[in-house]
Amino acid sequence: MTQPLFIFEMANNHMGDTAHGVAIIRAMRDACAGFPFEFAFKLQYRDLDTFIHPSFKGRNDVKYVKRFEETRLAREQFQTLLDAMRECGFKTVCTPFDEASVDLIDAQGIEIIKIASCSLTDWPLLERIARSNKPVIASTAGATPEEIDTVVSFFLHRGRPLTLMHCVAEYPTPLENLHIARVEALRRRYPEVRIGFSTHESPGHHEPVMLALAKGATVFERHVGLPSPTVTLNAYSANPQQVRSWLEAAWRALRLCGSEAWPEATADEAASLASLRRGVFLTRDVAASEVVDESAVCFAFPPVAGQITANQWSKYSRHVARQPLLAGTPLLAETVDIHHERERVLAAVTAVRQLLQEGNIVVPGKSDLEISHHYGMEQFAQFGLVMITVINREYCKKLIAMLPGQTHPEQFHRKKEETFVILHGRMTLWLDGEERQAQRGDVITVQRGVKHKFFSDTGVVFEEISSTHFADDSNYSDPAITANPRRKTLLTYWL
């Protein structure tokens, strides 16, 4: 997981007083000490001489005009704040509201540009920001998905690292209006960008940051300030103590969420689960070198140390006794050789999928797949094929796939006649010992009683059309195949 970044938004809470702004920065440094996060401080820049229209300058009846003018700082004063941020180890972030402010950001070497929600589609400003060659963080309050799509495309096409912040522009935001599920929605819609949460709820609420982190946000922003005898914070700005509590909540959430990876079970967890599983017990004597199959075992509680459990007993695992085993005893792992076939089965299915794709062959959904491994999966690369049953009624249709280098041993059918249509690749057939070559488009009919054998050097897919298939109607020339009860693996959900 990307290391979370916490951004402290100073906005106008410096109150136009540089010394007070520096005090805020130092107080927040102490508040975030000891947390394993990245931290940044953010300013807001407006070139007030051009940002406010001349007809509105000095108007005390216009809320934001009055606030901006009363908290005005000169360029040198902002530089003092930036120096304090860097001295305290903070990354520097700034929100510009006009093009001249972007020029100042560039001149002062500020690292990250933040776009306010109200400026998200201010295209003259975005064009200037894009030329700054800096990472961009953009808040999305009030924006439509289509507007966000356009902004994401704009910055990604210009090669700018982008973070989108879920944000609600109510100050403070009622908890029921936070809609933190949008963090997850943004992650799904824009997997190529980082997602964050810009929060404006009352600082006393810690659940939002925990939920946002759990939903996948990795950047967090909130307004901060420092109360004093002359300064009272607004309802959505956090003091240093509230910031530390906020960070503690985020740290708890991070630890609770843990990793998205699938780690191995801890020793305690593995021991606890193993103690509750059913063990494999022998129900009859088993000779050395004999395969221990379902006829020789039962599953019962409790297991003993070193015993094979029901969780390890699978049709893809074959257990061969190393020594004589007695009825009534637990089947211990040290007394058998275990042959795992799952990986071989998955490899075979993957190869068949590839062969079907190469031939542009459409397979009906949920068609059953049958892997014929006449001499076991360990020899499937040399002997075998895969059959996909499309239908088996009075008539039967199958798709048959053979991988490059495979041979299907000789057999015949007493009950069915079959016709093969080659769809992809080529193969060699032997019909009652007579060799034939077949390739895409060829049609071959095999009558009842005719012995047939196949080989493909390239890989082949062919269609089998026949009368009804019966499980007992495959008669092999090699009796060892007929004697092998484990020569087929059946799969339903494989596509």
Largest sheet: 11 strands, antiparallel
Rg? 36 Å
Terminal Cα span? 32 Å
Structural class: alpha/beta
Average pLDDT metric: 94
Number of helices: 13
Tell me the total number of β-strands. 24
Strand content: 25-35%
Instruction: Specify the helix fraction band.
Output: 25-40%
Shape: elongated
Low-confidence stretches: none
Structural summary, described in words:
- This protein is α/β, with parallel strands linked by helices.
- 27% of the residues lie in helices and 27% in strands.
- Strands 14, 15, 16, 17, 18, 19, 20, 21, 22, 23 and 24 form an 11-stranded antiparallel beta sheet that branches. Strands 1-2-3-4-5-6-7-8 form an 8-stranded parallel barrel, surrounded by 5 helices. Strands 10-12-13 form a 3-stranded antiparallel beta sheet.
- Helix 1 runs parallel beside helix 10 and helix 9 runs parallel beside helix 10.
- The longest helix is centred in the middle third of the chain and has 18 residues, at 240-257.
- The two termini are 32 Å apart.
